[in-house]
Design brief:
The structure is a single chain. The protein has a domain of about 60 residues. The protein is built from 3 helices and no strands. Helix 2 packs antiparallel against helix 3. The chain is elongated, with a radius of gyration of 21 Å.
């Protein structure tokens, strides 16, 4: 059981580190606006950073998916019903988590979360505030 806990802690730590691996952005000086040429270079740099982050996330997801497939194969070999149920719950949790992360990546790509689309609070390709709710007519 200690190995299982160690494995889970390791995976969670790796996911947290992979999400936090970017460098914090320095605050821009408020004295004068950047010339157009400089802004174009900043956008290009941000686009490159975005691509690097997306590539890193994809690599992390691929590694997580491979580990999940190993876990699924191991669960199939467990004969003790209680132990199998515990491991199956673990597999179900990671399946959900990996699916959610994959969907977030697809949404980020689809929405074009590039440099022109990034606003305040949207650092390193992450989602800032939740999207506004759809326009719904509420009964009065």
């Amino acid at each position: 059981m200690n190995r299982i806990a160690l494995f889970l802690v390791t995976i969670v730590t790796l996911v947290a580190l992979s999400l936090a691996q970017g460098t914090p952005q320095a605050a821009a000086p408020a004295t004068t606006p950047a010339p157009r040429r400089q802004m174009g270079m900043d956008r290009q740099k941000m686009a490159e950073m975005h691509k690097q982050h997306m590539d890193a996330m994809k690599a992390d997801l691929d590694k997580m998916q491979a580990s999940l497939e190993q876990m699924k194969a191991n669960v199939a070999k467990i004969t003790n019903a209680d132990e199998k149920a515990r491991w199956q719950a673990n597999v179900d949790l990671w399946t959900s988590m990996i699916g959610h992360m994959d969907q977030m990546m697809k949404n980020m790509d689809r929405m074009g979360m590039g440099p022109g689309m990034m606003g305040p609070g949207m650092h390193h390709g992450g989602m800032g505030a939740p999207p506004p709710p759809p326009d719904e007519k509420k009964p009065q």
